[in-house]
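Re: Re: ligand-bound prediction request (bumping)

Still looking for help on this. To restate: I need the protein modeled with adenosine monophosphate bound, output as structure tokens. Inputs repeated here so nobody has to scroll up.
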Amino acid sequence: MRVILLGPPGSGKGTQACLIEEKFRLPRISTGDILREAVRRETPLGRRAEDMMKRGLLVSDDIVVGLVEEAVQREEHRHGYVLDGFPRTVAQAESLLRIDGRRPERVLDIQVGAEDLVDRLSRRHVCPGCRAVFGPASPPGAEEGRCAACGGALEIRADDKPEVIRERLRVFEAQTAPLREYYRSRSVYRTVPGTGRPEEVFGRIVGQLEAFLSGATEERRS
Ligand code: AMP
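Reply:
Sorry for the wait, this slipped through. Here it is.
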């Protein structure tokens, strides 16, 4: 099963992608994580991407599509994957089809209001070690400023500054939101309310994916 998560920045795509990976054994491909790692390691690709990322703009297609092509063609992704942060434009969606040769089975659009997004993004902390994402407070039992999962030092993402957040949301509306129509017309598009605790949102996602999987099993039987 190939799943695409399509929410705006701050909608919880990364968190939900990790939960999907664990429950459905679908490897996660996150273009944001791959790019941040390249920037951290100061690779030539990371140096090319860094400026656009800092400004909240999209990295050019030749960089991102190349990364996804390499990832999707790996053996471990042959039976499916969950894509977090890709595609972000209709052109990228077309490239994915060319690279993979098959359509995604589900595109889940996690929907959260603009006010909530700004609030979530400006308060979130991330663990660069294990990539866990936290809200403002340290979770119960965790040391202040430390990751509850691996103990690493928590950071604020460079692009979670208020002016960059605004730019990322603007870019989403201008360049990524048109993907909703693109996938809706291909009948793989489903909305998922993104409000509530991560486990509640995940419950809705599980419902969507299990419905798809049982439908696919029925189809094979008939
Ligand atoms: P994310 O972690 O998904 O919020 O991505 C962080 C940043 O990485 C984005 O603001 C972009 O600068 C860049 N990025 C991630 N995925 C893509 C993509 N599919 N196309 C272009 N730029 C991307």
